[in-house]
Structure formats: structure tokens, C-alpha cells
Amino acid sequence: MIRILIAEDDERMSRFVEEGLRAAGYAPSVVADSVTAVDLAASGEFDLLLLAAGLRRLDGFAVLAALRHRQAGIPVIFLTAPGSPADTLEALEGGADDCIVEPFPLEELEARVRARLRAADAGDPLRGSIMRYGPLELNLHALTVSVDGRTVELSAREFALVEMFLLHPGQVLSRQQLLSHVWGRDFDGTSNVVDVHVRQLQLKIGADRILTARDAGYRLG
Fold first, then answer.
1. Are residues 116 and 142 located together in one domain of the fold?
2. pTM: predicted TM-score of the whole model, two decimal places
3. What CATH code is carried by the domain that includes residue 144?
4. Which residues contact 91 (CB under 8 A, 6 or more apart)?
5. Can you give the CATH number for the domain in which 38 is found?
6. Do 115 and 188 belong to one domain?
7. Buried/exposed 46-78: b ≥16 CB within 10 Å, e otherwise
8. How does DSSP assign 78-125, residue by residue?
9. How many structural domains comprise the chain?
């Protein structure tokens, strides 16, 4: 799941953005302190930063300068106040990838977020190969799965199951959906082959990572 850091001191605005992005399927986190924002944005744990000019301790322009000093590659969309074209110019010259003027409709913000993420993936082929959901991470390039930073040895079928779950975070997937994706539509196997492999997967990555939906299938926990 794509993780977005929202650095915004205005509680009303941060809640508006957070709820909108969560409803759109992203995993947003909010921070109001500039120093914490720099540390988190440079940590590599987030895919995008939404940065407001007004923050606690330091302003958003200082955050941009700190990220540039650390050579952090996270894409940044800067949130500027209305009637302040100078702020827009300063943000873009300071390293922001895009700017959006408050207040803005969620549809415009989501479109800009998608555009920045596409540009980031195009510029770094490995970036789009990382899939995350909580502590669970799958690397399509290295063909590895890790939980809390610990690499887990999986079979090819188990890897494909994790990929399928990460492609549909929070969604209940039926046994037939999993069977078709992992074994192929024409697979002529036993009726419980999915259940057996999911149980094996739960033993490796944790039973709470994949939950059973009674008579329906499985979903990420």
C-alpha cells in the first residue's frame, strides 16, 4: 500500500486530507512538527510527502532545504496559501515537485498525487516494485518478502499469494480468485489446496497477517 506523509499544522486541513487519501486507498500519516517531518520523509518509509508551509518549529521551506541536504528522494507536493505566488516559486526552487493552493478539491489533490507517483516510478524502476501493507513488504524485483524488516523464505506459490493479497489490500479474496491467480484457471487440484497454502503462509508471516472471512475467503489483516 502506498504510504503518504502529510506534514500539516492545521488540524482541520490535515484531517480533511488524511480522510480523503484513506478513502482513496492510500495509507496516510499526519505530522505537525517540522523536525519529525524531516526524519520521517528521509527514512525511506514513505512514497510521497504533502508538505505545508506552516509547521511547528520550522516552516515547510526549511523542511525542503533539510531534505535536499540529506539527498532524500521522496517526491514532494507543497501546499501553499491562496494569493501567495512567491511561496509557490520558493517551494519549486527549493526542491518541491509540485504545488497546490489551499483550499483545493480532493479530486485535484488525488490527481496530482497519482501524477507524482507515476513520475517517481518512471524515474526509478525499482520504486514501483515495492509493495507494502503495514509491516509486510514484497519486493517484485528481488523476489523477497519481509515482515518487520525480517526476510521470510517463501515458495513460489506462497510468494504469489502474498502478491495477490497486496494487490487487493483490505479486500476479501475468494478461494476461486486465489486459485485462478496462483494456480491458473485450468488447475485441476484438490478443493483445499488454497487453504493448505494459506495456512503454511500464516505460519511463516504470522496468523494475524492473513485473516479468514468465514465462508468467503481470506484478506490481509
1. no
2. 0.57
3. 1.10.10.10
4. 53, 60, 61, 64, 78, 80, 99
5. 3.40.50.2300
6. no
7. bbbbbbbbebeeebbbbbbebbeeeebebbbbb
8. EEE-TT-HHHHHHHHHTT-SEEEESS--HHHHHHHHHHHHHHHHHH-T
9. 2
**Element holding 130 (H helix, E strand):** strand 130-133
pLDDT (tens digit per residue) in 35-89? 999 999 998 888 899 999 888 788 888 999 998 888 888 999 999 888 778 888 8
Does 206 lie in the same domain as 109?
no
Compute the distance between CA of residue 20 and CA of residue 30 in angstroms, rounded to an integer. 13
* Domain match, 119 and 196 both: no
173: left (phi over 0), alpha (psi -120 to 50) or beta: beta
Contacts for 96 with CB less than 8 Å, ≥ 6 apart: 51, 64, 76, 77, 78
Where do we find the cell 500500500? Answer: 1
Residues of the chain with pLDDT under 70: 1, 121-129, 141, 184-191
C-alpha–C-alpha distance, residues 150 and 136, integer Å: 9
The DSSP H or E segment spanning 133 is strand 130-133
Q: Which residues contact 197 (CB under 8 A, 6 or more apart)?
A: 157, 158, 161, 182
Nine-digit cell string for 41:
520523509
- Both 112 and 172 in a single domain? no
CA 218, chain centre distance (Å)? 21
Same domain as 174, residue 114: no
Pairing of β 136-139 and β 144-147: antiparallel
Identify the residue whose cell numbers are 504510504: 3
